[in-house]
Structure formats: C-alpha cells, structure tokens
Amino acid sequence: MTRFAALACSAFLLSGCAGLQRLADLSLTPPTVTVERATVAALDVEGATVRLDLTLTNPNGVAFEVARAGWRLEVEEHEVSEGELPGGLAIPARGTVPFAATVRVKWADVTHLVERVRRQEQVAYRVSGTVGVATPVGVMDLAFKHAGTLPVPRLPTLRLAGASADFASLTELTLQLALEVENPNGFPLPGATLTFDLLVNGVAVATGKEATLAPLGAEGRASITLPLRVSLLGAGRAAGTLGGGGGELRLRGTVRAAGLETPVDLRLHLGK
Fold this sequence. Notes:
Blueprint: H1 3-12, H2 18-25, E1 32-44, E2 47-58, E3 64-75, E4 78-85, E5 90-91, E6 95-106, H3 113-119, E7 122-135, E8 138-151, E9 157-167, E10 172-182, E11 192-200, E12 203-213, E13 221-231, H4 232-235, H5 237-243, E14 248-257, E15 260-269
Antiparallel strand pairs: 1-2, 2-6, 3-4, 3-5, 3-7, 7-8, 9-10, 10-13, 11-12, 11-14, 14-15
C-alpha cells in the first residue's frame, strides 16, 4: 500500500484500506469533506436548529455522486438523536460542491438539561457523521465532525410587585397579587405555567395554586394580577395582618414551559 493510501485511511476513517488501494490503482484521489462553518439557524424554548455547511471536493477527472449521508448529535456527552440526509448530489470532476446538514436539538430530549438551565448559560454539543460518495470502486464514507456550544433558553423571570387585600367576609380575604413578568431571551416565549404556594409571615395561606403566563415577545415584559381567596380560619392571624397592612408575602413555586422548568422564590414586605 502506498504511503498516500495509508494516510488517507486514517484521515477519512474509511471502512477499509482496500478501496483506497483500488482508487490509487485507477490513478484516482479520494474525495474530501470539510466543515466550513456551523451556525445556530433557530433558537426557541423548545429547542435549537444547528446548520452545518460542508464542502465536498473531488480532485479527479471524473464526477462522483453522494450515495448516502448520516449524522449523530450529542449534547453534554449524551447522544440525543441521529438521522439521515438525502443523497443524489453530484460532485463534478475537479470541482467542489456545498452540502448542508441541518440538525434539530429538542431540549426535552437532553438528559439533565432541566438542572443545567438553573446553573449555566450554555450547553456543549457535537455533531458527527459520514458522507458516502459513490466511486468506481464502491461507496467511500467520508467522516465529518464539529463541536460547539448552544445558549440555553431562559424561562420567564418574575417579580412580586405588589399586593392588596380586602375582607370578602368575616372568614375570607380577597388578595390581589401583582406580578411583573419578563422574557430575558432574544426570541419569543410561548405561554408558561406557574405553580406556587403563598406564605404570609411564614404561614402557608394558599397552596398548590396554578397560574397561566401569557406568551411574551423577544425581551418582552408584561404585568399580571393573580386573584386569590385566603381563608382566615385556615391562616389565622398571619392572614389577618394583610387586612390592615404589614407582614411579609412569599411566593414560592416553579415556572414550566416546553419541558423546561425553573424555581421561583419571591418576597414582598408590606408596609402599614
């Protein structure tokens, strides 16, 4: 085997060196595949779309054709998906041709991403695969790979902006909680849900409540009001302080959207 054939075997991870030797016998040079760039074509709360731009080069005097192609995606060292790309692309003699691979990352498929959303702003990914080129001696698989990072989407941030309370009856208070909601991302967010408990002076006065957060535009903000009924019988003196002002409100819960979640723990001191 020629030194060139041996080097090409290692560089392109071909299934066997016999095909290279046959190409060399025909005075043909193995084609190559190069990753030119990788871009995040789309990013949203459900996932990201990564586009790989490849270049196939044919240094020979005869045209070749792409017979098959496939890719595998890993995020944070966990394989999350794989797929195939259409073949049939002609590579002209002594020419180059662009070839694109588009890969969709779904956050819900990424192991432990929920925890990572809380702790880091990016996740590492790696795309690898092969492009099978039909040559006179058979299909030759050319390997490609690329590694990079993806920004992790952030769920809405909340701020407890205020509250007001009125006696609905001798045994109940009507409580209005004012929340400010902000989208920290440069892309729109779909609607989310907020599941929460409300504590007054450390005593739970409303538990297992759920509210719907409306969709937000890119870096958008909104204000919402959460109406609650608070039992004076169940909450006792802690809730009773709201009627005359004073005390501390604490909203503790979780925001969820598109398979992601993040905790919230908001406090508000009420003056007299």
